[in-house]
Amino acid sequence: ERPPTPPPPTEDEVTELETGLQLPLRGNDVGDLWALDEAYDAQAAMLSRLLGLEAAHPDPARRGILCDFYMFNLSQAKALCLSKRQGAVFHAIMSRAAAMAGELAQGIAERAADGGAQKEARRPEDLAHGTAECFEEFRRLMLQHSIAAPPERLAIFKATEARMLTDFASSTFFKHFLLYQFALSSARDVQDLHFCSGISLPRAPPSLRGGTLCAKAEEHGGDGQRGLVDGDAGGEGANGGEGEDEDDEIRRLVEEKLRETEAALQAKLDAREAAFQEKLTKRTATDKKYAPPLPRDAGKVAWLAGAIAPATLVGRAAANGAADQGPFAGRPPLMQAELPLRAAAMRTLRDVPQCPRRRR
Predict the structure, then answer these.
(1) What residues have CB less than 8 Å from 216, skipping those under 6 apart?
(2) Is the model's pLDDT at 344 over the cut of 70?
(3) Continuous H helices in the chain
(4) Which of 110, 142, 115 has its CA nearest to residue 126?
(5) Which of 64, 131, 256, 289 measures 20 to 30 Å from 50, CA to CA?
(6) Cα 246 to Cα 252: distance, rounded to the nearest angstrom
(7) 127 pairs with which residues across the strands?
(8) What is the dihedral of CA 229, 231, 235, 238, to 10 degrees?
(9) φ and ψ of 259, to 5 deg
(10) Phi and psi for 290 in degrees, rounded to 5?
C-alpha cells in the first residue's frame, strides 16, 4: 500500500509564492514571533535562529543591525493589523531591499571572496546598487503583490495597506539608506584607547611614638589598659583651632559686609522717603487735590471758627442799633443778630471740603 499523500501546505506554511518570491519566514514563524509580545531578547534569539544570522553575519554589530531592522518591520506589520502571511511577505520584500543595498560591485565582490577586500567597499561606486535601484525593486515587489492577477501577481495587500507600508519604508529604511548601506557593506573599525588614571593612596597612620597616656584610662583602654593619645593628634587639635580662627574671621568679614550693605540700603530708603515727602509737600501747597483731608467735624469747626467771628460782630452791631435796617427790619434785635450768623454759617458749610468716605 502506498503511504497517504500529505496534505498541501497552508498559506502560513509555504516558503515560496507563485510569483517566485522566497519567504525567509513562514506565516507560522511570524505568528510565533508576535506571540512573544515585547520580549525583545527572546524575539531576537528566535529570529537569529530561524534566519541563521550567526552563520551569515559573524560580526555582532552587523548582526545586531539586521536583527533590529527585521524586528521593526514585523512590529510595524503587527501594528497595522496585518495577517501572519502578510507579515511574512512584507518581511521578504524588505529583506530583498536590504540585500540589494549590501551587495558589492562585481570586482569588489571577487576580491572580497578571496579575503582582504571587504574594507575597500566604503565608497558608493564600490556598491552594486544605489538608492533609486533598491527603491524601484521595492516598488515592483509591492505592486506585484497588491494586484489580483495570478499567477504573475497576487493580491496579498490591499491598496491602503500597500500605501501605509510604502510610507513606513520611505520614512525609515530609504530615508537612512546610505547609513544602512555602509553598515551592511563595510567592516566596522575598531580602535583601542588606553588611559592611565592615578590612584589616590591613603595617608600613612600617625606615629605612636609621640603618644601620651590618657587621663581617663577606663574610657579608652578598658579592662585596666591605658589608651594612648597620639602626639600628632594634638597637632591636629591645634590645626583644628586654627581652622576655627579662620572660620571666625570669615564670619566677622561676612557680618561687616552685611552691615555695610544694610546701611547703604537704609540710606537709599531714607533719601527716597525724604524726596517723596518734599514732592508731596510741594503738591499740597500748589494743588488742593493733594491736600491731606481733615476729619469731617474738625473741618467744620475750623471753617466755622473763621466765619463765625465776623458774623458775631455783625450780629452784635445789629443788636445795638441797626435793627430797623436791612432785609431783617421789623424783627426783634436778637433775631436780627442770629439770622446773618446762620446765613454765614450755611455758606461756610457749603464751602467746606468733605473727606472721602472709605468703601467697605
Answers:
(1) none
(2) no
(3) 27-35, 40-51, 53-56, 60-79, 84-102, 106-114, 131-144, 159-171, 177-185, 217-220, 231-286, 296-321, 333-351
(4) 110
(5) 131
(6) 10
(7) 104
(8) 50
(9) -65, -40
(10) -95, 5
Q: Any idea which of 118-132, 184-198, 230-244, 343-357 has the lowest mean pLDDT?
A: 230-244
Beta bridge partner(s), residue 155: 146
The DSSP output letter for 173 is: T
User: What are the backbone angles phi and psi of residue 144, rounded to the nearest 5°?
Assistant: -65, -30
Distant-in-sequence, close-in-space partners of 206: CB < 8 Å, separation ≥ 6: 230, 231, 232, 233
Q: Which residue has the higher pLDDT, 276 or 38?
A: 276
* SS3 label, residue 96: helix
Dist CA 51 CA 63 (whole Å): 11
Count of other CB atoms within 10 angstroms of residue 157: 23
| Mean pLDDT, rounded, for 129-134 | 89
Residue pair 90/115 in contact by the 8 Å Cβ criterion: no
Angle at 241 between CA 238 and CA 247, to 5 degrees: 150
3-state SS of 176-209? CHHHHHHHHHCCCCCCCCCCCCCCCCCCCCCCCC
Residue 237: pLDDT over 80: no
What is the pLDDT at residue 292? 55
pTM of the model: 0.51
User: Computed from CA positions of residues 211, 212, 217, 220, in that sequence, does the dihedral angle turn out positive or negative?
Assistant: negative
Strand (E) or helix (H) holding 147: strand 146-149
Does residue 153 sit in helix, strand or coil?
strand
d(CA 26, CA 32): 10
